[in-house]
C-alpha cells in the first residue's frame, strides 16, 4: 500500500532542483597507470569529512555527494581529454569551458571499438594483469536510493531505474543526448514498463504519473525518442554500492547506494564470467580486472545487480568470520583502496575467498 503521504509530501517539498547537464564541460585523463594517477589520500580525506558528522546521511543527495568527493590527480596523470573527444563525438563551435574537477581517468591500454553482436565494447590494447585498475569514473546522471524511497512507487520492481529515468529527464540537454546516442537500444523495442502483474495498482499509477510528469517537459523529443531513452536507462544503469564487500555496508554506507548512467563504463558488455569487477566510493566507481586479460580480448563486467544488498542488506555467513564491525571509516576505506591497488600475480580468489581476505585485512587494520 502507499506510504504515509505527509512524509512523501515533505520529501517532495525538498526535492532537488536539476539543471541541464553540460557534457561538453566534462573531462578526464587518459593514463598509462590509472592507480598511480589518482590522489587517493585526498579522496579518503573527502570521504572522511563527508561521513564524520553524526547525521551525515540525513539530508544527503546525489548532488551533495558528488560535490563532496571531487577527484584529484597527479600532475603527471596522463593526457587531458574532454569526454566528448574520448567518445569520438564532434561538437562544432567554440571550445567548452571545462569544469574544475575531472570526471574520469581511463587506461591508455583500453580501446572502444565494435564488438560482434554486441554493438561496441572495451578491448585490451595490451596484456593486463589481474588487479589492474583500468577505469575510474563517476556517472553522468545518478540518484541515491534514499532520494526516492519515500515515493508511493518505491516498492515497485523497477523503482530504481524509474527514479534514474526521471533524473535523466530533468537533466536532459543536447550534449547529454549526443553522449547517449550510441547506447543500446538504438530503437525502442517494447513498453518501457517492467512491472509484474503482482505490483500494487496504486503504486504503478503513481509511477506512471511521476514518469509522465518528468518526460512531458521535453516537448522537443518525440514519444519514440522518450521511450528509447527510458529503455536506455533500464538497460544501461549501473548501481553503486560503497564498500558492499564489508560487513558494515548495511549499517554504515547504505545511504550512499544509488544508480547511475556512466558514459565510459557503458561500453563494458555483460559476461557470466566477467573479467572486470567494480568497486565504489560514493558515486566514484573503479573498474578492476579480476584475471589476466590478453591483448585484443574484450573486457566485460556482469550486469547482475546484487539486489540483496539493496533491498535486504548484505547477508554474509558469520561462520566464515566472526569479525564484528566496529572499525573506523578511514580503516575501511584504506583497506578497500589497498585491495584495488594491490598487485596481483594470479587470478583473484572467488567471492567467498575475497570476503574473508577483506575481513582479515580489516582485522589487521584495526589493531
UniProtKB/TrEMBL annotation:
**Superkingdom classification of source:** Eukaryota
Q: Which Pfam families match?
A: SET
Write down the InterPro entries for this protein, in alphabetical order: Gramillin-biosynth_MTr, SET_dom, SET_dom_sf
Region Disordered: start and end of each range? 183-209
Compositional bias per record (Acidic residues), positions renumbered to this chain: 195-204
Recorded hits in PANTHER family, A to Z, give: TPR DOMAIN PROTEIN (AFU_ORTHOLOGUE AFUA_5G12710)
- The protein's name in its UniProt record: SET domain-containing protein
Q: Which organism is it from?
A: Durusdinium trenchii
Q: What lineage does UniProt assign to this protein's organism?
A: Eukaryota, Sar, Alveolata, Dinophyceae, Suessiales
